[in-house]
């Protein structure tokens, strides 16, 4: 039935909220917003669905220097505290417009105060997923102590949180984190997935903190302080590959379960690091990598054939199933060249059965031992 005709329904004969929830749950957001104005009953159900997962993205520019969507969202949550138990996800992202200088004059203070108030209010105590990516906040408050993220999360309590992503744009000399972050993370006993985008030092957590953490994205130093003694199977590194030294590799190997998925798309990686990783992390099954082609693998070749020299590196991975080179930037290459590399790498690493090339083309090994392209 068209939404414009929904007011003709005999609303005096109330439909159970459970039934309305099942009907409304699959509707587009725009239709749900329309339903909130139809009746009090529809509004009550539609609002619970609309607020179940909040995702706000503000684009900051010279003409729009403050995150107005985030501010309105925070005000709306405070006015609807009764919806708190329905909110499962709270995701805030601030980004600078591509045509705006990163050092622009952004007015973030008032909205940050709103964020602090919402997170400390207890209204969001039932959330399971939290994301705070605050873009240029480190530059705007470059001398702020504590770190702006810590100011926002201080005093908040999220006992049901299973996924957490925190950070902002980072550069040397910008604010660092303190024990406020350590204390916050130490309270998240159900956390499984953690991303710390601008934390480049060690964490000081109790050995019993984060007991079921299974995935982490962060700097080598932070990762090395977090992995030992925890069941982390997925690791995504950011920063510089020369920060991954022998001491850090040794700590990577001290997880309570084998590390199986390694994402190196957040750094330019030299072949020597791939060799070292294979020695310390022999159980890697999925490897996603952005190769540093300034350290060419084969000087006599150009384009995608540069990757020919990767064979000797792949021979050190004995359980690798999927090699993903999509983050690597290589000019040229066609299906014939990719197929040739598939066969060459398979001879070096017989466990391979899927390869994703810089062209984003996927090749799979079929049951007959032939490589098949799936664009």
TrEMBL record:
<dbReference type="Pfam" id="PF12937">
    <property type="entry name" value="F-box-like"/>
</dbReference>
<feature type="domain" description="F-box">
    <location>
        <begin position="9"/>
        <end position="54"/>
    </location>
</feature>
<dbReference type="InterPro" id="IPR032675">
    <property type="entry name" value="LRR_dom_sf"/>
</dbReference>
<dbReference type="InterPro" id="IPR001810">
    <property type="entry name" value="F-box_dom"/>
</dbReference>
<protein>
    <recommendedName>
        <fullName>F-box domain-containing protein</fullName>
    </recommendedName>
</protein>
<dbReference type="InterPro" id="IPR036047">
    <property type="entry name" value="F-box-like_dom_sf"/>
</dbReference>
């Amino acid at each position: 039935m068209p939404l414009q005709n929904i007011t003709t329904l005999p609303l005096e004969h109330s439909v159970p909220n459970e039934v309305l929830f099942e009907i409304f749950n699959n509707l587009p957001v725009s239709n749900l917003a329309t339903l909130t104005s139809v009746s009090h009953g529809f509004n009550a159900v539609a609002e619970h669905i609309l607020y179940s997962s909040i995702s706000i993205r503000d684009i900051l520019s010279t003409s729009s220097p403050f995150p107005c969507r985030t501010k309105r969202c925070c005000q709306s949550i405070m006015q609807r505290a009764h919806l708190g138990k329905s909110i499962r996800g709270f995701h805030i992202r601030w980004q600078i417009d591509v045509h705006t200088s990163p050092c622009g004059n952004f007015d973030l203070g008032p909205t940050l105060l709103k964020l602090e108030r919402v997170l400390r209010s207890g209204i969001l105590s039932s959330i399971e997923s939290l994301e705070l990516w605050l873009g240029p906040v480190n530059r705007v408050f470059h001398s702020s102590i504590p770190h702006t993220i810590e100011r926002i999360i201080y005093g908040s309590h999220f006992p049901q949180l299973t996924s957490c992503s925190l950070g902002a744009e980072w550069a040397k000399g910008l604010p660092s984190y303190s024990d406020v972050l350590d204390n916050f993370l130490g309270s998240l006993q159900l956390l499984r997935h953690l991303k710390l985008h601008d934390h480049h030092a060690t964490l000081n957590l109790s050995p019993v903190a984060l007991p079921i953490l299974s995935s982490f994205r962060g700097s080598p130093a932070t990762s090395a302080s977090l992995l030992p003694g925890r069941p982390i199977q997925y690791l995504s590194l950011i920063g510089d590959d020369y920060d991954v030294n022998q001491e850090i590799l040794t700590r990577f190997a001290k997880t309570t379960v084998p590390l199986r998925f390694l994402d190196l798309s957040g750094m330019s990686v030299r072949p020597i690091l791939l060799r070292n990783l294979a020695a310390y992390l022999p159980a890697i099954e999925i490897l996603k990598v952005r190769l540093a082609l300034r350290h060419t693998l084969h000087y006599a070749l150009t384009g995608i054939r540069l990757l020919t020299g990767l064979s000797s590196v792949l021979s050190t991975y004995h359980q690798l199933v999927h090699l993903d080179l999509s983050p690597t930037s290589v000019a040229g290459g066609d299906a014939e060249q990719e197929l040739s590399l598939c066969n060459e790498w398979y001879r070096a690493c017989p466990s391979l059965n899927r390869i994703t090339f810089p062209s984003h083309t996927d090749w799979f090994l079929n049951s007959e031992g032939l490589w098949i392209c799936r664009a």
